[in-house]
Amino acid sequence: MEMGFIEIGDEEYQDLLMAILQQYSYDFSGYSKASMKRRISRFLINKNLGTLRELKLRILADADYFDFFLEEVTVNVTEMFRDPSFYLSLRKNVVPYLKTYPFVRIWDAGCSTGEEAYSLAMLFKEEAILARSRFYATDINGKVLQTAKEGIYPISCMKEYSRNYIKAGGLYSLSDYYHARYNRAIMDSELSKNFLFSVHNLVHDGSFNEFNLIVCRNVLIYFQKELQEKVLELFMDSLPVFGFLALGNKESLRFSKIEKYFQVIDHKEKIYRRIN
């Protein structure tokens, strides 16, 4: 065992994943093995668990503990207006097209604790299309979705979020969109009026609507190639012709099976439009 790392063998790793699949119907077999092993190892160390077998027994015996495990090992790194240049591009290259529709549906897939969904809502409000938009914000993790529904964040984060907002082309002040109370920032309820938060597992849940814009940023990088292809096909099935798909800046449709169905709108920001 290295300092700060517990070595996890392939056989015991696969045994844990199979047990989780059988008991809770969560399939992690398509996730990046190296990334998942790192996160599980960190979990073992932080919770003072000596072996993977001990973790498996606790997970199988206690559904609440599994929820706790799920929250820790699924990636929930997010912030408001993360990568401001992405929002600038969205405002310039995508919103003008969305404005031509009488009603707009947006899927924020892998929304985590909701900062991205609220960022999109602010942008849509400033572009005068929020009232005729419906946001579907989904994640595998029900606990982070609860945070997203509440729309309450540490006030200490708002300084950085404000800088992001300004760089993203914000027209006003970020403080116009939340109420400060003690050490918390409570998001304006108008932003989430047209939100629908729901648990959705990209690994095995199917398409549930047709969308004009799908945003799934920095999620595919944690999947192996085969699962990436499966999720991208799910997104294509959920987009009509001329619908937009936005990925993270380290993700791409290049060399994917669905690449030929899309036009590159912004190569740097990984924004695509379905053309056939």
What can you tell me about this protein's structure?
This protein has 276 residues and is α/β, with parallel strands linked by helices. It has 2 domains: 10-73, no CATH class; 84-274, 3-Layer(aba) Sandwich (Rossmann fold). Helices cover 39% and strands 17% of the residues. The chain has 9 helices and 10 strands. The strands form 2 sheets. A 7-stranded mixed beta sheet has the order 6-2-1-7-8-10-9, with helices on one face. A 3-stranded antiparallel beta sheet has the order 3-5-4. β4 and β5 (184-187) form a beta hairpin. α1 (10-24) packs parallel to α3 and α3 crosses α4 (63-73). 33% of the residues are buried. The mean pLDDT is 93.
CATH fold naming of the largest domain = Rossmann fold
CATH level-two architecture of the largest domain: 3-Layer(aba) Sandwich
Number of domains: 2
Q: What order do the strands of the largest sheet run in, or round the barrel if closed? A: 6-2-1-7-8-10-9
Assess the beta-strand content as a share of residues: 15-25%
Describe the protein's topology:
Blueprint lengths: L9 H15 L8 H14 L5 H10 L1 H11 L10 H15 L5 E6 L5 H12 L6 E7 L2 H9 L1 E3 L3 H10 L10 E4 L2 E4 L7 E5 L13 E4 L8 H13 L6 E4 L14 E5 L4 E4 L2
Parallel strand pairs: 1-2, 1-7, 2-6, 7-8
Antiparallel strand pairs: 3-5, 4-5, 8-10, 9-10
